[in-house]
Amino acid sequence: MNTAVVYYSLEGNTDYAARKIADSLGADMLRIYSKKVYPTSGFRKFFWGGMSVVMSEAPDLEPYEFDSTAYDRVILGFPVWASNITPPLRTFVTENDLRGKRIAAFACQSGNGAEKAFDRLKACLGIDALEAELVLIDPKDKPSVDNERKIEDFCVALRND
Ligand SMILES: Cc1cc2nc3c(=O)[nH]c(=O)nc-3n(C[C@H](O)[C@H](O)[C@H](O)COP(=O)(O)O)c2cc1C
């Protein structure tokens, strides 16, 4: 099973999880970057990120290489923003044809909203279900046994699938 972990991370929590997942599964990794610069501190961070979600933006991405035909499975990772997927991930899923792939997803959040975000991701992809879902609470900034166990369980489920 050729697997790619494709993710966006503003402040490193999703990146932290993506590295663990890719390492555990022996998957390729692609971190996408938005050309639009999102603030990383204070009120501006939530305001401009939230506005981008509300406006359903799909910001241009920095150039990247991704050949979807090389993968059977794609694991999409993102921080939850306003109970939604992050706009750069929206760009990625609209730019790439992922039909027929196994799609799993993981979301990092500080409180809640991931379930709605997964529903929105499925709607973007035009699918009814994800192969596996993982929700983490700020895994880099708030290290916890629970996060680590959930990452491992997610990888075991995918490895056995
Ligand atoms: C614009 C913005 C909106 C956010 N909205 C939510 C939210 O709706 N629910 C939540 O639990 N966390 C929310 N967060 C917190 C992040 O999802 C969380 O801290 C995540 O772990 C950050 O991942 P990252 O370090 O990979 O960027 C938001 C953060 C930002 C910047």
Q: Which series of helices and strands comes N to C?
A: EHEHEHEHEH
CATH architecture classification name: 3-Layer(aba) Sandwich
In percent, how much strand structure appears in the residues? 15-25%
Count of individual beta strands: 5
Residue stretches low in confidence (pLDDT < 50, at least 5 long) are: none
* Class of secondary structure makeup: alpha/beta
- Mind summarizing the main beta sheet? 5 strands, parallel
- Rg calc: 15 Å
Count the DSSP helices: 5
Looking at CATH, which topology would you report? Rossmann fold
The termini sit apart by 10 Å
Brief overview:
The chain has 161 residues and is of the alpha/beta class. The chain has helices at 13-25, 42-54, 87-95, 114-125, 145-159; strands at residues 3-7, 28-31, 73-79, 102-109, 133-137.
How would you portray this structure in words?
- The chain is of the alpha/beta class and 161 residues long.
- The chain has one domain: Rossmann fold (3-Layer(aba) Sandwich).
- The protein contains five helices and five strands, in the order E-H-E-H-E-H-E-H-E-H.
- The chain has a five-stranded parallel β-sheet, sandwiched between helices.
- Helix 1 runs parallel beside helix 5.
- The chain is globular and about 45 Å long.
- The mean pLDDT is 97.
- The structure holds flavin mononucleotide.
- The site of flavin mononucleotide has 23 residues, from helix 1, helix 2 and strand 4.
